[in-house]
Design goal:
Number of helices: 16
Structural class: mainly alpha
CATH class: Mainly Alpha
CATH superfamily: MFS general substrate transporter like domains
Distance between the termini: 49 Å
Order of helices and strands: HHHHHHHHHHHHHHHH
Strand content: under 5%
Number of strands: 0
Shape: globular
Number of domains: 1
Radius of gyration: 20 Å
């Protein structure tokens, strides 16, 4: 086993945190082809995205307490094994219904990597340093959604949509082997009562009642929902409506994700100097401005590739500044409940994004407004939350 602080461990954690993104973004260019294969509409095929988030959200509430009780390693290895089996089921699915079920099971496994990867970072670092590490991990992790649609587009063009799920089988198997052979146990504060249902519910209630935690969770939910609105609507809009081939769609998606990499990397460089709250506020302002720009462009003109990609690129710069810092801020006060804090945060984040994704899919049309208006709305929600938290901090200072 390697030392927990080694760069190889950081690389493994980065791969773990990337499971959610790569499981979604690799097959995005295949969504129109899946619709043709199963003779389904955009809204029905979009359920393979939203049901993934639902499974991801629900399982987080389980992985957090389990890892707090039994440790990160055994729970992680079990989750990754499930992921490999479910990914294979996706590749072999003979109907859209079976694909949706397999995607749900795939999410149950993928969730282990994301929840426990974040918890491992909190196990090893104090809040400020954890924010810095999470920011660097986020910028490196962004390679998954940046390269995923490009690779997925070419695989779709050459081998068909099933081959993308076979790639996920390989990714899951390799990561499982790396965790088995190299990843040490990092949970030194195991809680024997963490898996008691009553105790777990009490912990989640205590977390939800904490105003600071609640505010950071809302920021994460709004920030990620805007990203997922683009994920839900962009492939149908850019490929079907604007006529981009799948491989060129992947390049556009990569250009958008570059914005997240810029924001996350900038956050990693500046968090210790400027603080979490200031960077979150800057990210919220950028996200709101970008969302309003995207909505305005589709409201007054027909959608264009540049008119969609450029504003979302800016939105993801803001998200890259907001999300790592808000995650670190949410988990920071709870070192003994890092798993539960990470789980509840992810649950709220994913459920909100899944609901917004269904709405975007059902309202999809050639105008692109369902997607851009959704991004503007969540950008406003994040900005209002940041402003509200700042007002509460200011009031406490004045009272003291």
């Amino acid at each position: 086993m390697l030392r927990p602080e080694s760069r190889i461990i950081t690389a493994i954690v980065t791969a773990l945190v990337a499971f959610g993104a790569i499981s979604t973004d690799l097959y995005l260019p295949s969504l129109p082809a899946i619709a043709v294969q199963f003779q389904a509409g955009a809204g029905s095929v979009q359920l393979t995205l939203s049901v993934f988030l639902v499974g991801f959200a629900v399982s987080q509430l389980v992985y957090g307490p389990l890892s707090d009780r039994f440790g990160r390693r055994p729970v992680l290895l079990a989750g990754l094994a499930l992921y490999v089996a479910a990914s294979l089921a996706c590749a072999l699915a003979g109907s859209l219904a079976l694909l949706i079920v397999a995607r749900f099971c795939q999410a149950l496994g993928a969730c282990a990597g994301v929840v426990l990867g974040r918890a491992i970072v909190r196990d090893l670092h104090e809040p400020a340093q954890a924010a810095k590490v999470l920011s660097y991990i986020a910028s490196a992790m962004a390679l998954a959604p940046a390269l995923g649609p490009i690779l997925g587009g070419y695989v779709e063009a050459w081998l068909g949509w099933r081959a993308n799920f076979l790639l996920l089988v390989g990714f899951g198997a390799l990561t499982w082997l790396a965790c088995l052979s190299l990843l040490p146990e990092t949970n030194s504060r195991r809680n024997p009562e963490a898996t008691r249902i009553g105790r777990s519910l009490a912990i989640y209630r205590e977390l939800a009642a904490h105003p600071l935690y609640r505010g950071y969770v809302l920021i994460c939910a709004f920030g990620y929902a805007g990203i997922f609105a683009f994920i839900s609507g962009s492939s149908f809009l850019l490929i079907e409506v604007l006529g981009l081939p799948p491989e060129r769609y992947g390049l556009c998606f990569a250009a958008v994700v570059a914005g997240y990499m810029i924001g996350a990397f900038t956050s990693g460089r500046l968090t210790l100097r400027l603080g979490l709250e200031r960077l979150i506020a800057v990210g919220a302002v950028i996200g709101l401005a970008a969302g309003l720009l995207a909505a305005g462009l589709t409201l007054f003109a027909a959608p264009t590739v540049a008119g969609l990609v450029a504003p979302v690129f800016l939105y993801l710069i803001g998200a890259g500044l907001m999300l790592p810092n808000a995650m670190a801020g949410a988990m920071g006060p709870f070192p003994e409940r890092a798993g539960a804090a990470s789980a509840l945060l992810g649950f709220v984040q994913m459920v909100f994004a899944a609901g917004l994704g269904v709405l975007v899919g059902q309202l999809h049309d050639a105008s692109g407004r369902s997607m851009t208006f959704a991004i503007a709305a969540v950008g406003l929600g994040a900005a209002v939350t940041v402003w509200s938290m700042a007002q509460r901090r200011r009031a406490r200072v004045e009272v003291s």
